[in-house]
Design a protein that fits this description.
five-stranded antiparallel β-sheet, 5 domains, globular, 9% strand, 33 helices, Arc Repressor Mutant, subunit A, alpha+beta
Length: 677
Amino acid sequence: MRNLLGRLIERSPQSLSSIGHFWDVPLEGDDRHRDAGQLYPVMTDPWSLALGWERLTPVEQRVLAHLARARGSIDLDTLAPALAEESGRLLPALRRLYRIGLIASERNEATADARPHFYVPTEIAHLLTRLEAERAQPPSGTEPPAWFLDRLADVELLELAERLGMRVLPAVTQRQEALHFAQRRLLDRRWLAEALAALSPAAMRLWSWLNGSAGAVPAGEAQSALGLSFGELRRAIRELAQLGLVWRSYDTQGRLCLLVPEATRHPERPQPRPLPSLIEAEAAVSSPLPWPWAAAWDLLTVLRALAASDSRWRPGEEQPPRAVRKQVEGHLWVSRSGPPPADYLTLLGALAHSLGLIDAQGRSAPRERLRSWLRFSFPDQGRRLLRAWRRLPGGLEGRNIPSSGIDWQALRSRILSGLRELVTGQWYLLDSLVARLVAQTQATGRLATGESGAASALGSEAVLRQALTAVLGSSLRWIGLVEYGRSGDDHPVVRLSNAGAWMLGFRGIPPPQPHGGPALSADDEGWFTVIRPSPALVWALSAFADLVELGPPARYRVTRGSLLSALRSGLQLSQLLRYLEAQLGEPPPTELVDRLQRWAREYRPVWLTPAVILEHLEPGQVERVCEQLNQAGITAEQLTDERVLVRLPDRAEAEMAVRRVQHLLRKAGLVPKWRER
């Protein structure tokens, strides 16, 4: 068998890491099978392989193409004359192709020939043959949708039709049915608008750029123009290709090009009714959030309170436990002078559950998941919060709206699409924006679920206006997408914020953040001022210091109580001092260190060790049982002539250890039983 998955599993972790680096697939590196499972779908994707081909040198391309056409494996001495090349020139190409996973090698154990023979795994060989056929007949873009759809294999066409909204029944739905459905859908402007509204920011940027370019565009030019990494380009293209919006083409030099068919660019449609105009305004009074990524920071504050109070916030519960509400009161950006709005806490909880930051039991997520979340910057977290909000089931903002039939996910996508029309920083009358969104939403339809009563309720312009106003004024304002204010004649006005433009993908880089220098400053009294806020810094500070004021700049203070609480949770003073030195850019103030050391001396832990006691052993059995348990890696100590103490590992593994002790005792001819009290 020469399948790709088997060849990947045979690779060493270092080799898999090299393959992952080329294909821009992050790997954990601790499980070879899992890493191979992550690489396989990428390497067997036609778009990924076509993009990877573009990164090969001409010599590497010739070698790979020849090996793909070969019937069996080939050694270097056979390959060189076939390509009319010197062996010394082909060897680096073979090494690199092997290093990036496109070829594999084997040795003939049945003969004395020890030379490596090279071959292309079956899946990749089939894809290379397909791509070669595509290069021989590249589309120009003027072909009808049916021409592009005909090039897909049956399974690919059915998958595309299903993604486009068709209900596909395995072994029942016919190719022709899927073809007709997909063709109609790709010519439907209403569907196209909804599909574009649901794209990720990177895919939306690529789509906008392609539509601003004429004809087929080399993939390398798109990557350079948009400043995307190979992985970002690959994922953005895949997102568009999975909806049938972009297809492969090739120029006269055989370079891969991205092509948006003319029928997709300019589908026929009836003349739409004119939409209400957006009315620009000037804000006499504005009320932006003091920190653009307030929701991301506040979410960390809530998660810390949940962990510190050892509480549970289970899925479906709108409000966190009272202990959490008490801790966060006055410490959230959205409400710094009192209790936060109940709907805001509901939103944060729903986002935390959606992102896996609160587990199914309602507790703060495992350390590994939190650590992964803290690696993102605040702007990146903001963008992910917006995506998570768009996917939330139900309407957090619509509990007071007299309609339960709104498809809130579709409505959110419609709102985000409408906000893309705003000029960043320009104020608009809120009523004009809502009126335009109402018209756009009614034009697209498909925002009602349930029975006709729900649909008729949605058809009410007043209900739709109420829903749109609620979403803009709550969730999108809290997440930082829009800012509110009032005009000179006291009308509410709204604008797309700089942070909102970044989250929607209008900017290639996030809004300016302070760079360089220390992240933190400290004084002798234990006051810390945040200079360069980051999620990791905010999370770490909240572990050992109390938030006193958000600012900006935010200020924390370490107290005797906060330090002892941190020590009780497992933090060591030496770790804390090293961390502070790294964040301050210099050793902490001497008086502060003395204060921390003095408080730390008050911390006198008494360690509890789980154990079981074996009783009523006969004198001759005690030594034998201790010896057998110790040989099995279980610590056993003789207490008396008939009692043995068996130490157990930590509480998470204690039950398993007890079962193992019972098994060993049975092997020794004993009958273990629990004492009944």
